[in-house]
DNA sequence: TTCATAACTTACCTCGACGTAAGCGACTGA
DNA sequence: TCAGTCGCTTACGTCGAGGTAAGTTATGAA
């Protein structure tokens, strides 16, 4: 089932944060910009997350052979289209997370 | 950010499959029914997944003290509301997964 | 008195996600 | 000659998700 694969991908720790940040940055940004835009991410994880996104066709990597090197990442149409259902989840979380919290508290109280 | 927590939850291997299956079964089902409805899941994982869903208020667990025991799980309104954005992801995967596959193939070919 | 039943729990193990820290390559400016 | 810059990669260690298999509980049926 493709849904499972999709959820495995976007369910990891950084993927969604990176795509959302890239979108917020105007759809195109350098490695170091993303590093700053996603607080707490390490270079290792940002690099591997972007590599996966690139492989999946959700972003495009463009290397400018300068020194020091410049690399820009751009969100693709496919990547942008994923933002819509993602936003649905974001909205759900905003609207209902408090209720989940309460359920947890009640449950743990017993 | 609550979205991260939400994604961690539903991004695991079984949660979404269990909720979707429970819904397909009419919103209410026994442990063994779910076991059959979610192929490949072990009792251990089904048990812990349901425990989490219960704690989060997405399903309700009802125990009938018979022998052998009967336990029924019912999806809550909160749980049902989560199905909507989830369906958005399902639809996206259905519509776009082929494209992701192609991107991967092209990428790997190089 | 042994068996089967439903719904678990427990013990044990593996494997990969993730974190941290350091190194690297090619060039520029001081 | 040396440090600084950017975008990485490599090495190493931890931790927890998840798999497998077996045990548990109470009772009625054979």
How would you describe this structure to a colleague?
Two copies of one chain form a homodimer. Chain A is of the alpha+beta class and about 110 residues long. Chain A has one domain (about 1-110): Arc Repressor Mutant, subunit A (Orthogonal Bundle), CATH 1.10.10. Helices cover about 65% and strands about 15% of the residues of chain A. Chain A is built from five helices and three strands, in the order H-H-E-H-H-E-E-H. The first copy, chain A, has helices at about 1-10, 15-25, 30-35, 45-55, 75-110, and strands at about 30, 60-65, 70-75. Chain A has a three-stranded antiparallel beta sheet with strand order 1-3-2. In chain A, helix 2 (about 15-25) packs across helix 5. Chain A is elongated. The relative contact order of chain A is 0.13. The model of chain A has no long low-confidence stretch (mean pLDDT about 95). Chain A binds a DNA duplex (30 and 30 nucleotides) through helix 3 and helix 4.
């Amino acid at each position: 089932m493709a849904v499972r694969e999709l959820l495995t991908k976007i369910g990891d720790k950084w993927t969604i944060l990176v795509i959302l940040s890239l979108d917020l940055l105007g759809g195109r940004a350098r490695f170091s910009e993303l590093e700053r835009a996603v607080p707490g991410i390490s270079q290792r994880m940002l690099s591997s997350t972007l590599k996966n996104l690139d492989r999946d066709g959700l972003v495009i990597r463009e290397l400018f052979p300068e020194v020091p090197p410049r690399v820009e990442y751009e969100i693709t149409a496919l990547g942008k289209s994923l933002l819509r259902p993602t936003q649905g989840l974001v909205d759900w979380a905003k609207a209902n997370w408090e209720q989940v919290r309460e359920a947890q508290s009640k449950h743990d109280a017993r």
